[in-house]
User: Fold TetR/AcrR family transcriptional regulator from Henriciella algicola.
Amino acid sequence: MSNSFARPATQTRSIKTQQKLMDALEALLREKDFDAISVPDLAAEAGVAVGTVYRRFENKEALIPLLFELWTTRSALQMETAAVKAEEVTSADLRQLLRTQMRAAYSFIREQAHILRAVHLQGRLRPQLIGEDWKQLWKDALAGNRAFLELVKDRIGQSDLDRAAEMMIYIANTALVEKALFNEDGPGYVVSAEGDAFADEIADIVYGYLSLGPA
Assistant:
């Protein structure tokens, strides 16, 4: 992804400085929202001069594309770690399989909420920082869901697997992300279930939908 707001880090010292700033930003994001973090805050946390930050980045918003890259890298690793072999998918209980997958996804989102919240909000407020890269993430996720449904199509009522894959990813991601990122400031506030119990509820909603036949 091209980032015209940041100077490319090519030299060893520049790469180390950029990593220090990203580590500092992540630490600060665990304590407060992106908008509440100033460049002096970032410099102090990284142990560098304020001028060093501005030599690397036009402004703090220029860090958002790098946060997005961090999110996508960690997401890909999590998906690889949580992947289930095809033979396991075809032999496992579908409801339990969905619960296991939802638990893993929700746990990951909560662990990385400090990063995703910044990327999610700033990407909407300043779409030029991320551009169309979100769409590729959703296309990859959609392809994965479609492949999963192909393996279990004999155990579900939905016959249109393309539509089912779309709805499955929409239901799951909307619920999991909303609850993890904005629990106290959205509809998740009224939901008493937390952690694995919440993930199980969303898995059961998806399971119910997949079990239904066409209207």
Summary: The chain has a mean pLDDT of 89. Residues 12-62 form a domain with the Arc Repressor Mutant, subunit A fold (CATH 1.10.10.60).
